[in-house]
């Protein structure tokens, strides 16, 4: 009998926490779906009387170009950083040369630095390259600063591909890039999925680079637009909430559908070896 | 050696050369964008660049001296310490508790895991916006009890300017004084209550991550070890304390490093949720740096702040990277 | 020090029945070995006893105490696991002291017991080391030590020798037997290796697919197996089985297996008369077939002819792989035998050591006597 009680307690705690975690989503959804008349701070927790999409419409109309900007920036950035990470991971695991471990260490460090310490030179450099203020500037930024984490994840993934495969191909006469093209790349699909999801999420959610590299509100990605919207005194709070939900939707959908791979990226990045 | 030998030697070298070649673009990119830029920022931090026009006149450590005497920066340091301790601490505790509960053949484990982890998928900006309204003084969490029949809370959350600290004339203060730590009984070493709101939002976002790590770690402990402990006479709680927790030390360390380095550079959440807060209660170095640089154009001071942040993060991360890579090499 | 009783114990995991209505009475101070192929339920049986799994049905008693609802930590049993399950983050000393610490045993008492056990197992020099720094054999001793210091009512062993190399295994078998003598406590030991069972057990319980097939002394199981499975499991290389029919009268029964015909002596004929015309399995152990030139004195033999397929020289004996009709058999004979591969050979079957089993039920029909 004692055993049953402790099981109940366990479930109670888990459910309580689940409710706390879901609380913000509940508020987001409920607020977004209310009609303008129903939206009052002291009725925050009340359910809407029906499904009203006015808040969403208004939020979307302010954010739509920014959302498009986010997509235009995130997709190329994800693709390029995946490719770079894959090649780097491949070289570092299957073609070790003296110093490759040191190089890996130096690459990894780049993942941890506060980006504040590179912002000023970054801006100057992007200006020199004439991509400052444009989405391509952001793409370049994210591709470069994504190299450490994508390399890490691919390196851990490729460590699990038996070296014998590469050695057999070497004996068969393939070149380094040939082996990549014919053997490693075809086996990389799960790795690409994990890295792509992780990068998509990180880049979409980024704010610091976005707000630094782009200054024109028409060019800025969704995160910056959302923050501007939230900081403004004239935008209604329910529109802010609707906007937040819209801005979060792409990564949430990716998480819901492909959550498994999200977790794998997380684990590969967090627990080395 | 002969012709074959020489050809082989050339092949080997050309392969390794090709390997290096494939990886050079990344090395160059990181070399420039990370190390080069850090160097550049360091140069700016010891310069006199205070306006839109670059000025690289060398001024030694003046900027740093100014910073550490700057009232706002001092508060930022205090806030960062407070935030880091509270944020990392609560994530570790909540993550561990949830993981150890989930490790017990729970029906719907996958669902619970997904719920605890989903906040990681959204941006800190979204989190900031939502929690700003959830912890707004006249809404959100404060009025939730009234929905359940209890009186509303009237707490100010992130608008509360109170900084609790050990008062010099309190018993604790006198105890500290007696052991030579009297200087800690000062608002400069106090806890800005407004920061708690930010900690709540950040913990909501990241505790799922810690939970996943602990869950994986717990699952990696062979059940046989726990069976042996059970037969040896340990209760489930004793097993947790004496077997599971010690074996999870690497996970705890990894979590501390990853959360810690994030908390040292926290920016997105603060800027969308509370900004600097009442009396700089929620101000953080990253925010200070951003305003100084891009709104005040004091590039040299901004660079100075960023270098201080970099050093702080490096002190945390470099030993960890060493330890982790050496451990991997040994395996 | 206690007896252990399994009373109609059943354990089901969903559709699968791991232990099926097991009733077994284990005497105090016995060395009982549970033996059987993988998946037979032996490990499950001791896990149920240890309290690591709940029963589906039945009762388990330790001493006079019904332990069904008592959690593992209060059952006062100690267990040695197959992989030793040493706590990797603790020193050898702490590993051994852990159980005592959990029960609140005073420090000096703990120290005394740990040092005593370490002495007995000759691991005193290892007390400060961590498991990762020990060899397989050393780890096994620490696992033993951890169990010994608890001074439990029953010792459980789950395939403790399977991770050791062959030489160490032989050595450790002897040490375990000696340990049992010294400790005078009930040992319940699980293994898939019938050699371990035969050499160490006071009694053996043979399981297959969750069912208990036979329990008895090694002699019981070797000479008087209850059925084909036990007969084939005990003894290595295993018994030869030849299908045939029982023919004849009470005076003279013949086992008719086509190319092989064996006439039985009077006593056995009388035993088997009720089963005349039945389809049977004849069982002959390889060691009960002899080269007639080197026949041991007491053996009452019956001649058979066979063709030798291949021979294997083992040193102290020769294995002859034989073919009789369509049947393959193995015989272990004196190494001086003149039998050669490809040639016919005449062998003598020990007529007093023939086993007869019902072909359908596989049960033994009339058993032989255990020699003095």
Please give a structural write-up.
The complex is a heterotrimer of chains A (273), B (331) and C (372). With 273 residues, chain A is mainly alpha-helical. Chain A has helices at residues 2-32, 54-94, 100-112, 116-128, 135-158, 163-171, 176-184, 189-205, 208-213, 222-231, 237-270. In chain A, helix 8 runs antiparallel to helix 11. Chain A starts with a helix and ends with a helix. Chain B is mainly alpha-helical and 331 residues long. Chain B has a single domain (72-330), classed as MetI-like fold. Chain B has a two-stranded antiparallel sheet with strand order 1-2. The radius of gyration of chain B is 25 Å and the shape is globular. Chain C folds into two domains: 4-233, P-loop containing nucleotide triphosphate hydrolases (Rossmann fold), CATH 3.40.50.300; 240-358, OB fold (Dihydrolipoamide Acetyltransferase, E2P). Chain C is built from nine helices and 20 strands. Chain C has helices spanning 42-50, 92-102, 107-121, 136-148, 166-183, 194-200, 218-223, 228-233, 266-272, and strands at 4-13, 16-26, 31-35, 57-62, 65-66, 77-80, 154-158, 186-191, 203-208, 211-216, 240-248, 253-257, 260-263, 279-284, 289-290, 301-313, 318-324, 327-333, 344-350, 355-358. Chain C is elongated and about 75 Å long. Chains B and C meet through helix 9 and helix 10 of B and strand 6 and helix 2 of C.
